[in-house]
Specification:
The protein has 306 residues and is of the alpha/beta class. It has 3 domains: 64 residues, Winged helix-like DNA-binding domain superfamily/Winged helix DNA-binding domain (Arc Repressor Mutant, subunit A, Orthogonal Bundle); 90 residues, Periplasmic binding protein-like II (D-Maltodextrin-Binding Protein, domain 2, 3-Layer(aba) Sandwich), CATH 3.40.190.10; 101 residues, D-Maltodextrin-Binding Protein, domain 2. It contains 11 helices and 13 strands. The strands form 3 sheets. Strands 3, 4, 5, 6, 8, 9, 10, 11 and 13 form a 9-stranded mixed beta sheet that branches. Strand 8, helix 9 and strand 9 form a beta-alpha-beta unit. The longest helix is centred in the N-terminal third of the chain and has 24 residues.
């Protein structure tokens, strides 16, 4: 009898794939939420199904991925090593799903610090929405520390920050130039003169909260040049600072980008001082281990990054 020899006994068999995207989805959700109960809500599964998927994943990789601390599940060394790869697989699967669903583009998750999110990104985001109707932007706004935490935790695809803060897991790319300026109410006693460091030190200051990139740069600038810095108000947004300053409660320090309209309408004035200019570079931050999809790359180019 002729024919090809049977090589089934000699051919190496590929290992059966024991991993699934569903397991990775539950794993990532558990890493974010800290419990399978909360993870189940995120992935629209029952808690028992989520627990089973997580147990199957740990059995498949042959290692525990979490430490049980009370009622919380905390990533251990194995889990931390797996998390960026699992997130990258889910990101790529999401892009494929959108591609064959006819959408062609996946949603973008973006975090921005307050000055950027309130004054610089709305225009580019609106233009992106018109040009890419199938790729909505989910924009989160917080202070710089919160943006960095969101990028480091894979909660967003890209972050935009104001301060010099960084994180060992992140890559930082310069973006736009900015300048911090001192503002006062239009009728303030220093509005019509060049203020000295001594005069500025005698004033009450209205500043951002700690954790803000603007506050970090402001503190470094003013404490270097003023004999004293009397902080009377610490507020969570630039808009709040401008309103309090406009009421004559003190001096503020804000980005020049945040003053569109406020100077023209006469609510605020930028003080002339003898201090050196406070210039800084706004930046984009990305996770070192995150898969950078085509849509994210196009959005970054759209915003002028790179």
């Amino acid at each position: 009898m002729t024919g090809k020899p049977d090589q089934s006994k000699d051919s190496p068999q590929a290992p059966r794939l024991r991993l699934s995207l569903r397991q990775f989805e539950v794993f990532v959700a558990t890493a974010r939420a800290g419990s399978t109960r909360a993870a189940a809500d995120r992935v629209a599964r029952s808690q028992s199904a989520a627990s089973s998927a997580l147990a199957d994943l740990e059995a498949a990789v042959g290692a525990a991925l979490f430490d049980r601390v009370g009622r919380r599940l905390v990533l251990n060394e194995n889990g931390r090593a797996l998390l960026p790869r699992a997130q990258a697989l889910l990101d790529e699967a999401g892009e494929l799903q959108c591609l064959f669903a006819g959408a062609h583009e996946a949603p973008l998750r973006v975090a921005a610090s307050f000055t950027i999110g309130e004054y610089l990104l709305p225009g580019p985001v609106a233009r992106w929405a018109r040009e890419h109707p199938h790729s909505p932007v989910r924009l989160r706004i917080g202070n710089t520390a919160e943006v960095i935490a969101a990028v480091a935790g894979f909660d967003v695809d890209v972050g935009f920050i104001e301060g010099p803060q960084t994180h060992p897991d992140l890559r930082v790319f310069p973006w736009l130039d900015d300048e911090l300026v001192i503002v006062a109410a239009a009728g303030h006693r220093l509005a019509a003169r060049v203020a000295s460091a001594r005069q500025l030190a005698e004033e009450t200051w209205v500043l951002r909260e700690h954790g803000s990139g603007t506050r970090q740069v402001t503190d470094a600038w003013l404490t270097r040049h003023l004999p004293e810095l009397r902080v009377g108000y610490e507020l969570g947004s630039t808009e709040a600072i401008k309103r309090v300053v406009a009421e004559g409660a003190g001096l503020g320090c804000v980005s020049r980008h945040a003053l569109t309209g406020d100077i023209d309408c006469g609510r605020l004035v930028v003080l002339r001082t003898r201090l050196p200019a406070a210039r800084r570079r706004l930046a984009t931050v990305l996770h070192r281990d995150k898969h950078l999809g085509a849509v994210t790359q196009r959005f970054l180019r759209h915003c002028g990054v790179g």
